[in-house]
Amino acid sequence: PVVMGLEGTAHTVSCGIVDDNSILSNCSSSYVPPRGGIHPREAADHHADHIVPVIEKALAESGLTMKDIDLVAFSQGPGLGPCLRVVATAARTLSLKFSIPIQGVNHPLGHVEIGRKLSKAADPVMLYVSGGNTQVIAHLRGRYRVLGETTDIGLGNMLDKFARENGIPFPGGPRIEELARRGSKLLEIPYSVKGMETSFSGILTAAFAFLSKGESMEDVCYSIQEVSFAMLTEVLERALYYTNKREILLAGGVARNHRLREMVSSMAKEAGMSAYLTDERYCMDNGAMIAQAGLLMYEKGMREKIENTGINPRFRIDEVEAPWIESSNN
Ligand code: ATP
Ligand code: FE2
Predict the structure, then answer these.
(1) What is the distance in A from the centroid of ligand 1 to the CA of 271?
(2) Of all protein residues, whose CA lies closest to atom 4 belonging to ligand 1?
(3) Domain 3-111+283-319 in CATH: superfamily?
(4) Which of ligand 1's atoms lies nearest the C-alpha of 154?
(5) Contact 98, 69 (CB under 8 A)
(6) Could you tell me if 142 and 154 are in contact, meaning their C-beta atoms sit under 8 angstroms apart?
(7) Is 163 in the pocket of ligand 1 (CB under 6 A)?
(8) Quick one: which atom of ligand 1 is closest to the CA of 285?
(9) What's the 257 CA to ligand 1 centre distance in angstroms?
(10) Rounded to the nearest 5 degrees, what angle is found at the Cα of 307, between the Cα atoms of 28 and 299?
């Protein structure tokens, strides 16, 4: 099938088109707040203004028309309510106007499935690190399960918040990565792992405190990265032994970070596992990832009624059946 995917849970509105073999197109427009964090209503206005041009561009790039589309998939949650509503409305409109089936998609499932499509990882343990989410996920008993996650804020949000307070615009992650490369002094930032759970708000507090004590921005950024990435590598490794799986997949916006990629790769190497690092272009939110998850659902015969396409701002990945993977180990 040929599937169109619409994404718009947070800062980016995007349309991607995929088929079984490849990504045919992927076009996005990101909302950049003039200052401060993302204001949901302003982001939603941005999405409403840009969704039609983004869809038109994705169709043009793929050389297709709506007649060629077999399914319209859209990100149903989790995310910002007003943003989700814009995207769901657009998807319903396309579905009704062109009589195409519609499928709501869990956003983290999209991050995971585009990573698998690009890497050919069969049944990996995943570290999904983005703005709002920091989760270790594996496929067990018919669906993806969250084995560990942050108990407070997502790692990306922590980085963005630290950046913002220091005058660095959204997204802060890439700039922090650059600064960290020039740091070398490891400051005593709290390493917070409890079982499979991580926590990042204490790191934020400590980072601000070190800055006001006169430590350099470079060393503080370096320390934030070293500590939080080591925490995640630890829980990821534990999840591998727990599940007996042999592959690792790194997904989500923070997965673009080279230091994190390096740490996860070297852990995998030492443990004799394969690490798949999602292509950087598809780490951040994009329509192709929603299309890919929709495609897998469609191929398994999963169909959604238009009445059930309401948004779900707290949608969790373990609410969805994922019968397209045979768990290698349970
Ligand atoms: P979610 O998937 O939880 O809904 P999101 O949709 O906001 O979150 P993504 O687009 O997947 O997130 O990722 C955005 C996040 O990735 C931002 O917090 C941004 O700072 C972070 N990020 C992007 N590039 C880097 C980098 N090189 N290093 C660290 N973080 C990065
Ligand atoms: Fe995301």
Answers:
(1) 27
(2) 132
(3) ATPase, nucleotide binding domain (3.30.420.40)
(4) 3
(5) yes
(6) no
(7) no
(8) 10
(9) 10
(10) 60
Superfamily of 123-279 according to CATH:
ATPase, nucleotide binding domain (3.30.420.40)
Per DSSP, helices labelled H in 37-181 are: 40-62, 81-98, 107-119, 155-165, 173-181
Residue 44 alpha carbon to ligand 1 centre in Å: 18
Look up tokens 């994705």; give the residue: 58
Tens of pLDDT along the chain (330 residues)? 999 999 999 999 999 999 999 999 999 999 998 877 789 999 999 999 999 999 999 999 999 999 999 999 999 999 999 999 999 999 999 999 999 999 999 999 999 999 999 998 999 999 999 999 999 999 999 999 999 999 999 999 999 999 999 999 889 999 999 999 999 999 999 999 999 999 999 999 999 999 999 999 999 999 999 999 999 999 999 999 999 999 999 999 999 999 999 999 999 999 999 999 999 999 999 999 999 999 999 999 999 999 999 999 999 999 999 999 986 555
Q: Which atom of ligand 1 is nearest to the CA of 171?
A: 20
User: Ligand 1 atom 7: the closest Cα is on which residue?
Assistant: 131
Instruction: Give the dihedral of Cα atoms 90, 254, 142, 239; nearest 10 deg.
Output: -170
- Every domain of the chain with CATH number 3.30.420.40 lies at 3-111+283-319, 123-279
Residue of 84, 130, 280 to test ligand 1 pocket, by largest number of atoms within 8 Å of CB = 130
Spacing, Cα 328 to ligand 2 middle (Å): 27
Instruction: Give the integer Cα–Cα distance in Å for 40 and 33.
Output: 10
Residue 7 CB–ligand 1 contact under 6 Å: no
C-alpha pair distances (Å), 165 with each of 37, 68, 293? 10, 47, 36
What pTM, to 2 d.p., does this model score? 0.95
Residues 6+ apart with CB under 8 A from 251: 111, 112, 114, 115, 126, 127, 128, 129, 278, 283
Cα 117 to ligand 1 centre (Å): 20
Given this model, what pLDDT does residue 209 score?
A: 98
